[in-house]
Each structure stands twice: as structure tokens, then as C-alpha cells.
Design brief:
With 88 residues, this protein is mainly α. The protein has three helices and no strands. Helix 1 packs antiparallel against helix 2, helix 1 packs parallel to helix 3 and helix 2 packs antiparallel against helix 3.
Length: 88
């Protein structure tokens, strides 16, 4: 499971790096890309066995929200801190 999480987050970072989507602001771009690339990991979380500590729906929602937060952090680092501009 940990390798799947690492691979998913690496894929998100790579996808944002090569993405040419033109959205109005870098933060919107990060949130949308984070949501899209978190969906496969979130759906795999639905297959987890039920546990008293967590629900599968809660895990699904948290995975998507955290993917969006991670991607927003990547966008802040690349777009604001390093001032990377998208050519287009």
C-alpha cells in the first residue's frame, strides 16, 4: 500500500510538470490535477475491509482531499517559490 501511495503522488507531480492545461490560476490547476490523479488511489481504498477505526467512504474522501492538498503544495513550490512559468 505504501508503494502505491508513493507511486500515486509521484505521478501527480510528474503530471503537473508536463501539463499544458490553461486554467485561470495556478492554484485551480493544482487542485484539479490533484483530484484527477488521486481518484485511482481513492477507488482502491474503497476495496479495503471495513474497520472500526475508519470507514471506506472516509478513506475515499480523505485520499482525494489530501491529493488536492499535496498538489497545491507542488504548485506553490513550482509556480510561486521558483516562479516557473508555463509557455503557451
Amino acid at each position: 500500500m505504501s508503494l502505491q501511495i508513493i507511486a500515486s503522488r509521484t505521478l501527480i507531480g510528474f503530471a503537473v510538470g508536463i501539463s499544458v492545461l490553461r486554467l485561470h490560476h495556478w492554484s485551480i490547476h493544482g487542485l484539479i490535477m490533484g483530484m484527477i490523479f488521486s481518484l485511482p488511489l481513492a477507488f482502491s481504498g474503497l476495496r479495503a475491509p471495513e474497520s472500526p477505526e475508519y470507514s471506506t467512504i472516509g478513506m475515499f474522501i480523505c485520499t482525494i482531499v489530501l491529493g488536492m492538498v499535496y498538489e497545491l503544495i507542488v504548485e506553490i513550490i513550482t509556480s510561486v517559490l521558483f516562479e516557473a512559468r508555463r509557455e503557451g
